[in-house]
Amino acid sequence: MNIILLGPPGAGKGTQSRRLMDRYNLRQLSTGDMLRDARSFGTEVGELVSASMDAGEFVTDDIVISLIEHEISGSSKGGFIFDGFPRTLGQASALDNLLKRTKNCLDAVIEIQVNDGDLVQRITGRYSCSKCGEVYHETDSPFDQSDKCKKCDSSNLIKRADDNASSLSIRLMEYYKKTSPLIGYYYAKGILSSVNGLLDIDIVEKNIIKILEN
Ligand code: AP5
């Protein structure tokens, strides 16, 4: 099974990807995580994308497409869950071609809907584990930044450099301008479904599972 999670920054794509990945034995492909890894390893790509990421702007299509191309050529028995990719019509068409070339197809595209006001609160309060990527929020109870990650026991919960109000307003503009046309693109292909991302995390997960198992 190959699925895409679509939604604005903070909609819960990463949170739900990790849950679905475990349940269906999928490989999560998050271009945001790949780009952050490239930065922390100091690669050429990392240096190229640093400034745009901090500003909240998209990096160029050719960079993210080549990252995905590299990953897709590796195997994943259960399939892939695309988190934060594609984000432009150019990326969507490149993904169609890559999947066709590897004799695969997309089974579902799930749009997670959340309004802008809630996104600000989610993004500015987010912490993530620097080791395994598990995501937390400062309103999670109990939450303390000095606590250990519940998943991998690492004691390094960090805030992302682009998780601030000014970068978020650019990220949102980028989303509405360049990514929202994908909703029509996948609707026309008959594989788009939407879920209310304002509900509790467990309920959002159940609703996505219902769609996938229907
Ligand atoms: P990326 O890392 O993909 O960031 P994003 O799309 O902005 O998405 P986020 O990771 O911020 O949010 P999310 O939807 O995963 O939410 P999460 O589950 O963490 O990209 C970063 C940058 O890289 C981009 O700005 C761009 O520069 C570049 N980039 C990446 N991919 C690219 C591409 N394809 N093309 C071009 N450029 C690219 O949840 C957020 C918070 O909310 C958490 O605290 C969580 O606990 C909480 N939460 C989640 N669900 C719920 C719920 N149901 N109720 C209450 N709280 C919830």
Question: Which keywords apply here?
Answer:
five-stranded parallel β-sheet, 9 helices, alpha/beta, three-stranded antiparallel β-sheet, globular, 214 residues, binds BIS(adenosine)-5'-pentaphosphate, 8 strands
Structural class: alpha/beta
Percentage of residues in helical conformation = 40-55%
Number of H- or I-type helical stretches: 9
Name the quaternary structure: single chain
Main beta-sheet annotation: 5 strands, parallel
Characterize the overall form. Answer: globular
**Radius of gyration computed on alpha carbons:** 17 Å
Total number of beta strands: 8
H-E order:
EHEHHHEHEHEEEHHEH
Strand content: 5-15%
Low-confidence stretches: none
Indicate the mean pLDDT. 93
Task: Tell me the strand order in the biggest sheet.
Answer: 2-3-1-4-8
Bound heterogens, unique: BIS(adenosine)-5'-pentaphosphate
Amino-to-carboxy terminus distance: 13 Å
Summarize the structure.
The chain has about 210 residues and is an alpha/beta fold. It contains 9 helices and 8 strands.
